């Protein structure tokens, strides 16, 4: 499915796949898709409290007892959001990445 068809754009799942050594079939197109995923996530979860709740829920459901993978996941998510988010103003980006 396309990122715009998935609530949250598939950003959290995509970062989970990266942590688990997923390699994109089309590396030349992935940066474009990352921008879509980030935009969709911040459109669907526009409030910092919604973002936090969604992330905490995702971590609890997908990384129970996997502290090292959870840490790696957060690093990957931070990198993807930092490099690919184009829809946030500077202060919103800093707030989301904090």
From TrEMBL:
Name of this chain's protein: polynucleotide adenylyltransferase
Origin: domain of life: Eukaryota
Protein family according to the UniProt entry: Belongs to the TENT family.
InterPro entries according to UniProt: TET5
Keyword presence, Chaperone: no
Species the sequence originates in: Stegodyphus bicolor
Pfam families listed in its UniProt record: NTP_transf_7
An annotated GO BP: mRNA stabilization
EC number: 2.7.7.19
MF terms in GO: poly(A) RNA polymerase activity; RNA binding
Keyword Cytoplasm tagged: no
């Amino acid at each position: 499915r396309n990122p715009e068809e998935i609530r949250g754009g598939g950003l959290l799942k995509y970062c989970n796949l990266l942590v688990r050594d997923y390699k994109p079939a089309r590396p030349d197109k992935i940066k474009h898709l990352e921008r879509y995923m980030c935009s969709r996530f911040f459109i669907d979860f526009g409030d910092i409290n919604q973002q936090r709740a969604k992330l905490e829920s995702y971590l609890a459901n997908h990384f129970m007892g996997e502290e090292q993978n959870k840490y790696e996941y957060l690093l990957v998510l931070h990198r993807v959001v930092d490099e690919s988010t184009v829809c946030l103003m500077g202060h919103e980006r800093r707030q989301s990445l904090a």
